[in-house]
Backbone:
């Protein structure tokens, strides 16, 4: 038995892809087929209610044949296009409407199943298809409320539901469909936004990690290049010794020797960097860290002031150089400078138990229309909120609303509590307050690692 051929081009699946695999809708439809068949057979044969059994089974069999065709024609794991998924969901709505038409219309308790295909559309397809399928469901539900075959019931009883109850069922189904679509759509959109924003955060972290990894590469390069440079210096000195006193290229030889010596000094610093990372470069006091972050931002029309003070006799915190912490603080400082008029104040305070860092500017402050959503992804008042950053009049790219989200995420990972707000009137400007538990971030308070005893100490 040979494997069935899979065509290379599959037009029904061309176009923008949806996040739905073919097997997902096929499996859901199989569940619907077996459930519908069981319900129809039980009502007709088990309860003995009068109903068009053959017509109902024919409608259910059509869905089964659609599933068989899809399974034979295309790979089950293939991602469907938005158009194909929309058409299949539209078929499911139409098939359910036809089955309900044969079994009492809106009076049938299973009318609530209209919620399933429109909810799948709301979570997986674009707004155009979701609106279209929802409108289709509304129209069919309204038609079923007025046109349908009798509800299956015992032959000797003339059962008829009151008009008020039927109207209530119609309103309930319509409201259920509308609420499910809005809720599912909103939740799916929030999930997609958070997923995209977290992916951007991971890219930033990966970039910072690559920058940190350059230290190790630089140290390796220093070790590898040491020998060739020593050889070059030796050969240059030998050439200088052997050449005549009035040789025309004597200055060039001296320059070559001096530059070789300079290269060796640079490589020596790089090779010692790895040792310095552990004790000197890797640890930094809070004020020195702030100065390092502020230094590249000075030189504009905005003045930056740093104030550090302790409460009582607490010593100045000693922090570990953390790329995520540095990126988060730099982003907040850069935002403050962008919106400030003439002054940005960075104030650091610490006690025996906590460290507080506050960044204030004299700008307009945070917009009241978005202040409750600050720190969420894609929230910004700058141009480019629609996802296409545009350069401003100074030629700089404006943000997409991810910078503050990434900064807040990185700072919270370091253990900070981030508070965003505006200055109390009559003062004005934005205020960002960061608070850490000192024990969690101050290397000076963390217990030193115990060294394993050497064999000589065990005896």
Residues:
């Amino acid at each position: 038995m040979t494997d069935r051929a899979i065509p290379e081009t599959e037009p029904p699946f061309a176009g923008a892809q949806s996040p739905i695999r073919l097997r997902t809708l096929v499996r859901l439809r199989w569940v619907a087929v077996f459930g519908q068949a069981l319900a129809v057979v039980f009502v007709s044969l088990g309860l003995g209610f009068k109903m068009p059994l053959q017509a109902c089974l024919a409608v259910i069999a059509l869905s089964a044949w659609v599933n068989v065709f899809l399974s034979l024609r295309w790979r089950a794991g293939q991602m469907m296009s938005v158009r194909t998924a929309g058409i299949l969901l539209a078929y499911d709505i139409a098939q359910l409407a036809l089955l309900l038409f044969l079994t009492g219309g809106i009076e049938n308790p299973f009318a609530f199943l209209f919620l399933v295909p429109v909810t799948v559309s709301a979570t997986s397809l674009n707004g155009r298809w979701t609106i279209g399928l929802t409108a289709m469901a509304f129209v069919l539900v309204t038609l079923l409320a007025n046109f349908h075959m009798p509800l299956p019931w015992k032959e000797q009883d003339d059962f008829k539901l009151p008009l008020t109850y039927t109207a209530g069922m119609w309103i309930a189904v319509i409201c259920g469909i509308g609420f499910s679509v809005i809720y599912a759509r909103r939740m799916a959109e929030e999930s997609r936004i958070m997923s995209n924003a977290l992916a951007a955060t991971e890219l930033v972290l990966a970039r910072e990690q690559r920058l940190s990894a350059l230290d190790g590469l630089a140290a390796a390069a220093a070790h590898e290049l040491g020998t060739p440079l020593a050889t070059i210096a030796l050969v240059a000195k030998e050439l200088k010794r052997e050449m005549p006193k009035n040789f025309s290229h004597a200055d060039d030889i001296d320059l070559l020797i001096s530059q070789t010596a300079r290269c060796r000094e640079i490589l020596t610093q790089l090779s010692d960097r790895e040792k310095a990372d552990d004790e000197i470069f890797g640890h930094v006091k809070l004020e020195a860290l702030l100065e390092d972050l502020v230094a590249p931002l000075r030189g504009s029309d905005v003045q930056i002031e740093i104030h550090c003070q302790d409460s009582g006799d607490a010593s100045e915190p000693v922090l570990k150089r953390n790329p995520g912490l540095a990126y988060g603080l730099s982003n907040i400082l850069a935002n403050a400078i962008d919106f400030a008029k003439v002054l940005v104040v960075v104030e650091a305070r610490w006690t025996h138990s906590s460290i507080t860092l506050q960044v204030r500017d004299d700008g307009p402050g945070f917009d009241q229309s978005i202040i409750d959503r600050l720190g969420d992804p894609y929230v910004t008042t700058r141009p480019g909120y629609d996802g296409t950053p545009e350069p401003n009049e100074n030629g700089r790219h404006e943000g997409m609303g991810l910078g503050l989200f990434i900064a807040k995420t990185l700072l919270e990972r370091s253990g900070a509590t981030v508070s965003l707000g505006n200055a109390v009137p009559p003062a004005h400007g934005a205020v960002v307050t960061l608070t850490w538990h000192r024990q969690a971030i101050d290397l000076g308070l963390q217990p030193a690692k115990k060294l394993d005893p050497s064999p000589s100490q065990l005896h």
About this structure: The two ends are 74 Å apart (CA to CA). Confidence is low (pLDDT under 50) at residues 1-15, 384-397, 448-459. The chain is about 55% helix and 10% strand.
